[in-house]
Structures are given as C-alpha cells and as structure tokens.
Amino acid sequence: MVGVDGSSGAAAALDWAAIEAGRRNAPLLLVHASRLLEPGSMLDEGALDRLRRERLQLLEATRDGILEDLPGLKVELRLEADDPARVLVELSRGALMTVVGTRGAGGFERLLLGSVGLHVAAHGHCPVVVVPRGGEREHGERIVLGVDERHEQSQAISWAFAEAELRGAPLVALHAVGGFGAPGQRIGEQMELAEALAGQRCDHPDLEVEYSLAETSPARALVEASEGAALLVVGARRRRLGFGMVLGRVNHTVLHHSACPVVVVSERSEADED
C-alpha cells in the first residue's frame, strides 16, 4: 500500500512501492485520503463533487502510469474522505508493507519527513517504508540492519534477513555504541552482535552477512551507512508516549535524513498498544 497525493515526495514512494510489489508478485493498493472530501466540509456540494472526481482521476492516472512500466501488476485504488494518517494506519492492518514519501524541494530540506509519514511510521500495523526523494533509485545492493544495544529487535532482524534473501543482497548488521574503551569491549560487542543474529544465520545459511561496529553515535552511523545502501531497516517499540516521541530519537533522525528508504518494523510486546 502506498499513499498518493500528487507530490514529488509521494511519486518517489510510488515508484519504489511499484517495483517492490512487482518483485514480490503482490497487488499494489494506491490510497488517496483527504478530509476535504468529507460531507459537510467547507466546500459546497458542487465543489465537493468536482474535487472527488479530480482526486479519483489522480488515482486513475497514477495507476495508468504504473501499468505502462509494469503491465502485469495488479493495481487497486482507494479514495477516502478522512485524515490521511488515520486512513493509512487503519488500512495497514491488512497490508504487507505501507509506503510513504518525504517532502521538500531539494538539498537538506528534501529529507524532511511530514507529519503524516511520522504518524504512519509510529503507528502502522505492518512494516512501514519511508522513501526519500531519489530513494526509489537504489544507490547500492546491500541492506543495512540497525541493531541497538539491547539486541532485542527480533522482528526487524527476521524481516531484514528475509528481505536480503529475497533480493539476493548482502546484509550488514550495524551496531554503534560511540567510542570504545578497551579492546576487550569491542570483542564483547562483536560476540553479542553475533549471538543476537545466530538464529537467523542458521535459518539463512547462504546469506552473506557482515557484522559492523561503528565508533560513533547510532544516528550518525545509520545515516552514513544509508549513503551506500538499498534499504535501511530499524526496529521500534511503539507505545503511546506522545506525538514525536514514540519512535525514539535515533529513528527520528534516521527517518529525516536517510539517503535510502527506511523500513520501520514494529517490535511489539504485551505491554505495547496499537
């Protein structure tokens, strides 16, 4: 599923989602939602009907453009009169992946993530992919998996291994803890990282996996790694801690500044709330 609004940021997400749907032989759902389409909005009935037709034409034109490049792809359309973030989160319950774009015109601004993307990344019920402008054109083959200090990201780890195997791509497991003290600390970190991935290594014995320890901050290490990656995969425990805080500081930085698509995989526990 991908959100469509006609912007350049959404176009990048759309291109990435279409390629990924084709790779997986999965149908692609195009969703456009707006509260302006609600009955009783600020528009009169005539203007509301015209707006509905325009938005449906946007979806149809988007579908036709996709089918020119991927004629065998099944593409479905959905037009909703509601808040875009709420619609995407609700529809994510039945999606394999939910894809959203970033916004901005260029330079540093091009990687700023809007409120809809942040909300969906924080509350989606399936893996959420945030695609920066230009991120639909992959800058490398490898998939980078961010592993935090707890090494408890079982869902993100299993998703990254499965995706790397699907693509036939090497996987880099990246763990950053800042500066290292004694050499023994580095050896200990390497052993813990290897132990955290041992189960998936057994399940994917032919996958090329590299362990990488970065002597810098986690956010900096992940953003730098994104420059040469096809995908950056992170896990997130999502509790209702308030807007802008549920993803954590590191993931917020990565979502705003990654050069490649970022996949946020929910790490849910019994204490977590949807």
Give me the secondary-structure topology:
Elements: E1 2-3, H1 8-24, E2 28-33, H2 45-69, E3 75-80, H3 84-91, E4 98-101, H4 115-123, E5 128-131, E6 143-146, H5 154-167, E7 171-176, H6 183-203, E8 209-214, H7 218-226, E9 231-236, H8 249-257, E10 262-266
Parallel strand pairs: 1-2, 2-3, 4-5, 6-7, 6-9, 7-8, 9-10
Antiparallel strand pairs: 5-10
Helix pairs in contact: 3-4, 7-8
Describe the model.
The chain is of the alpha/beta class. It folds into 2 domains: 2-131, Rossmann fold (3-Layer(aba) Sandwich), CATH 3.40.50; 143-266, 3-Layer(aba) Sandwich (Rossmann fold), CATH 3.40.50.12370. The protein is built from 8 helices and 10 strands. The protein has helices spanning 8-24, 45-69, 84-91, 115-123, 154-167, 183-203, 218-226, 249-257; strands spanning 2-3, 28-33, 75-80, 98-101, 128-131, 143-146, 171-176, 209-214, 231-236, 262-266. The strands form 2 sheets. Strands 4-5-10-9-6-7-8 form a 7-stranded mixed β-sheet, sandwiched between helices. A 3-stranded parallel β-sheet has the order 1-2-3, with helices on both faces. Strand 6 (143-146), helix 5 and strand 7 (171-176) form a beta-alpha-beta unit. Helix 3 runs parallel beside helix 4 (115-123) and helix 7 runs parallel beside helix 8 (249-257). It starts with a strand and ends in an 8-residue tail after the last strand.
